[in-house]
Amino acid sequence: MDPILNEKLARVTGTLRGLGRVAVAYSGGVDSTLVLKLAHDALGGNVVAVTASSPSIPGYEREAAAQMAAEIGARVLWIDTHELEDERYSANPVNRCYFCKTHVFGDLAAAARREGYEILLDGTNADDVGDFRPGMQAAAEQGARSLLREAGITKAEVRAAARELGLSNWDLPSAPCLSSRVPYGTPITPETLEKVGRGEWALRERGFREVRVRHHGNVARIEVPVAEFDRLLAQREEIVAALKAAGYTYVALDLVGLRSGSLNEGIAHGRGEAAGAAR
Q1: Residue 199 phi, psi (nearest 5)
Q2: For residue range 5-21, what is the model confidence (pLDDT) as tens digits?
Q3: Which of 151, 205, 148, 212 is nearest to 176 (CA)?
């Protein structure tokens, strides 16, 4: 392992041993998985993963998170969160993530405290700092601590460390919640999230690891990497049928290709409201 990264990881491990007993806000993504792995290696049974169960997180992601935690040997508490009941969230403003994470981290922290864990860790890394991330602000307000960020560990270093430590999800693509597929101002409902989730699962079943189904009413706008266009078009009829079965009337391929935050493109730059909010 790179000596600099090794030193950073040693710093995290030293901090963990000093904390003694922690809960990890765990999603199954590579960042929080690395935190859970480091915490479990350092503290053993004095670690618990607390994981949100919500309509905005598809079932296949919850299953993958459970499997990854089992590989590590960590205990998981599944917490039902109710952010959709908050109209400030379901109305889908540009700072939607703030209201979401306020609920989610509040619920996770409360569940951890009930189990006797006063310290909650999250997976924020050093690269997250430059973006506008209202969810990160909410997590901090709820008392979550970000050891990867504190140690200066970047996203590339997270993946390198996860690979070195044998974590099978080290190259897992980023998977923001399903609400990020819905244009700002369009209300978020359980039905809409289910529709998006069914559409994306249909594509994942066909071998597309990096995919977004952007929800535009009765139109599904598919984003995959440009290099995947030919493979997608070769399955055009099956994919159209699957997206229609999910509830869409029209199916479109975005010719720009997959990119993070495409729903921010319609918002004027310079206002600082939404950069990084939709993934």
Answers
A1: -65, -45
A2: 999 999 999 999 999 99
A3: 212
